[in-house]
Amino acid sequence: MPDFAYTARDFSGKKITGTITANSEREVASQLGAKSLFPISIQAGKGTQAKVTGRVSGSKMVSFYSQMGTLLRSGVPLLRALTILSQQSGSGVLQAALADVKSRVEEGESLGDAFARYPRIFNDMAVNMVRAGSEGGFLEDALDRVAMFVELQEELKGKTIGAMAYPMFIMSVGSIIVTVLLVYFVPKFDPLFNSMRERGSLPAATEFLLAISRITQSYWWVVLMLLAGVVLFLIQFLKTENGKRTFDRIKIKTPMLGSVFLSLAVSRFCRVLGTLLANGVPLLKSMDISRMAAGNRILAESIAAASEEVMAGQRLAKPLDQCGHFPKTVVEMISVAEESNTLDKVLVQISENLEKTTFRRLEIIVRLLEPIMLLLLAAIVMFVVLALMVPVLNSSSTF
Fold first, then answer.
1. Are residue 22 and residue 92 in the same domain, yes or no?
2. Engineered SS bond to 144: which of 3, 69, 354, 390, CB 3.0-4.6 Å?
3. Directed axis angle between helix 328-340 and helix 343-397, to 10°?
4. What crossing angle do the helices spanning 92-106 and 58-73 adopt, rounded to 10°?
5. Residue 377: in which H helix or E strand, if any?
6. Which residue, of 343, 369, 386, is where some domain finishes?
7. Residues 136 and 94 placed together within one structural domain of the fold
8. What pLDDT digit, counting tens, does each position of 142-158 carry?
9. Same domain as 99, residue 76
10. Confidence (pLDDT) at 32
């Protein structure tokens, strides 16, 4: 977010200047009004984004949020808590960021605004939870909730990666086996088939296999360059907004795995939204934060459209149902929760139920993928063997 330089007056008429990190001038005016300051001028600056680069692992962030909440609950002043955590941090990136955050808080900047300068370390959900906690007087509880949420996200990520590890291993081994066959094994049969090729009796499958082998053996560097070019193109394309959106659409449209990706995105949205609402963040602001936390731009666009309907006076359940990305059971639970005024609790419950259901489905899909990939590998090896052995058997039967 950009920085805004402001000049304002307090009730006594004293002129006060400073900077505030915000999304817009309107938000700056709102923050100044909350501090009983009357803005005279607000100017957008270039933004003094911190020079600290890099990311911090989820486990270290869980430890940081939890320890900070514990220190504040024990009566340790905020600046002292930041100093202690900065000195004890096992990450150089986090240590440098916390040192800068401490200096900015000393200058009068709020903790949430200081965190917002490091979006690669403190995500939007954490920043807005801290802002809400600071304003509402429940900063310790907000930090504990952020720690719990980040821990659950890391656990979810670990389970997903663990479930896909074995299929990826099979795919890698299969690729190595096929490459070895094409480069070292198949070329040894090429001289044996010269006479059959001259007579035109060489099967098309065998000719195709030998052609692939010759290309792989003689032009392997071209194949590698093409693969590298495709990978680089995809990496650059996925860095663009259009590329990210296309990839997110492909993820939720992929057979078998599409429903898993969509359910995980809906689960993240519900958990973040429920957590923010439980900590006093307004519904529209919570939806704006949680839609980006969902991790899927297609779903985020649908939620943004739903936010506009909510702003116009609609209940949340109806526009979510109309977007077509939320299961009917989820929409019904949200509708009942809105009527009973328990939306924050029900959203977290929905997230937990979705995660359990999704992981059961993911386990089934992984169990199916393993034999499918083994059968595919066996089919490729069988094709190679038959393409080589059938001409040999045919030639021996003619003598």
1. no
2. 69
3. 170
4. 40
5. helix 343-397
6. 343
7. yes
8. 788 788 878 877 877 77
9. yes
10. 79
250 located within any domain? no
CA distances from 221 to 102, 227, 267, 290, 311 (A): 53, 10, 44, 46, 58
Helix axes 283-293, 297-311, angle to 10 degrees: 170
> Residue 309 has what DSSP assignment?
H
Give dist(CA 182, CA 209) in Å, integer.
8
Instruction: Note the pLDDT of residue 44.
Output: 63
Residue after which a domain boundary falls, among 322, 343, 364: 343
Residue 30 domain flag: yes
DSSP-derived 3-state class of residue 303:
helix
Q: Which two tokens stand for residue 181?
A: 């066959």
Tell me: do 291 and 329 sit in the same domain. yes
- 143 and 66 in a common domain: yes
CA distance 66 to 45: 34
Which pairs from 17-22 meet CB under 8 Å and 24+ separation? 18/108, 19/45, 19/48, 19/109, 20/109, 20/113, 21/47, 21/109, 21/113, 21/116, 21/117, 22/113
**Segment holding 7, helix H or strand E:** strand 3-9
Residues 76, 37: Cα–Cα separation, whole Å: 29
pLDDT value for 240: 86
301 and 339 co-located in one domain: yes
144/62 same-domain check: yes
pLDDT for position 5 = 75
Q: Which domain holds residue 29?
A: 3-44
303 within domain boundaries: yes
Look up the CATH number of the domain holding residue 141. Answer: 1.20.81.30
Tokens of 6: 């402001």
Q: How many domains does the chain have?
A: 3
pLDDT > 60? residue 398:
no
Question: For 76-85, 136-145, 313-322, 341-350, which range has the lowest pLDDT when averaged over its residues?
Answer: 136-145
**Residue 108 included in any domain:** yes
Average pLDDT over residues 287-302: 82
Residue type, 323: C
20 and 69, same domain (yes or no) = no
Specify the pLDDT at position 49. 47
Confirm if 55 and 120 have CB atoms less than 8 A apart.
yes
Tokens 């030998």 belong to 210
